[in-house]
Amino acid sequence: MIVAAIQMPCVSFAAEEDKELSLIAAEQERSEEDERLDDINPALTDTISTERTQETNKDKKERKKKLKQARKEKEKANEQRLKDSANQKPDKRRDDSTIIIDPSEPTRIEPSQPKPQPVVDTKPEPQPITPPPIESKPEPQPITPPQIETKPELQPVIPPTVETSTLSDEKIVYANFAEVAHVVKFIPLYMPRKSGYEITAIYAGSGVAEVRYGRRWEPNVSLTVRTYKRRDGEEPQDISGVTGVKWRVDTTTGTTIYIAKISETEQVAAWAVGHYTFSAQAENLSYAGFHSLVADELVELSRHYYLDL
């Protein structure tokens, strides 16, 4: 068998020796293999022996000895070079560093960076602070309250031609509601039958219509409602005919109501809507019952039917 050994130029001397030793070991293995083959096939003895006699054992020992001697010489030369390099003084460092360029890699050209310039801290000079002008606030002016329009109040004045206790010669008794309405030229305020009150008498005099009521299930309870239509420019006045009482003002309904107690069993009220003036007087009715009757029924009806259109 023929074995070719290729040595690379970059392999060290130790690697060459290892290869030689491996070749010698391979030759010994081949010799042992050939001996085994001789036992198997004697006809191959001449060929194998001829190949093995090309290099004797003595030659191998001589070659191995030369290789070891050459390796020692190279090791000594390497040690001497290391000593010489250590004894040499290092050169002064240069400002410009040497750049080693690998030819296998593409050359990179680094952009030239500008040298940093010294930073000059230029602070602006402090300017004098001018205080802002102080706004002069106007002095507070005295507040003048708005003028409140005072509505004319009902004055408890009894018309001279109307009496509440006794009939006058100028008061006329009418048979029904339609007759008195035709005389006074307006529809007097009245209580509907559903409220429990029935008309007992109707009077009129000097433009004042008076309707008297009785309660069906309480005969001792009586109610008198008066209505008067004022002329243009005429101020509202009390038409109840009651004097000497302390009037109280009630505005819970939105309409000013004057209400007073005549006695423990009698109450009176007066109010005005548009051009009309009204009054109501009750006997044998509690103050709370009378107030509810006036505010919730009579005043409510007058606010709907006696507005100036």
Considering the chains and any ligands shown, give keywords for the structure:
309 residues, alpha+beta, Protein Transport Mog1p, Chain A
Structural class by SSE content = alpha+beta
What's the CATH architecture of the domain at 172-305?
3-Layer(aba) Sandwich
Largest sheet composition: 8 strands, antiparallel
Please write the string of helix (H) and strand (E) elements: HHHEHEEEEEEEH
How many beta-strand runs? 8
Instruction: Assign the CATH topology of the domain at 172-305.
Output: Protein Transport Mog1p, Chain A
- Could you estimate the helical fraction of the residues in percent? 25-40%
Walk me through this protein's architecture.
- The chain is 30% helix and 17% strand.
- The protein is an alpha+beta fold.
- Among the domains are: 13-79; 172-305, Protein Transport Mog1p, Chain A.
- Helix 1 (13-40) runs antiparallel to helix 3 (57-87).
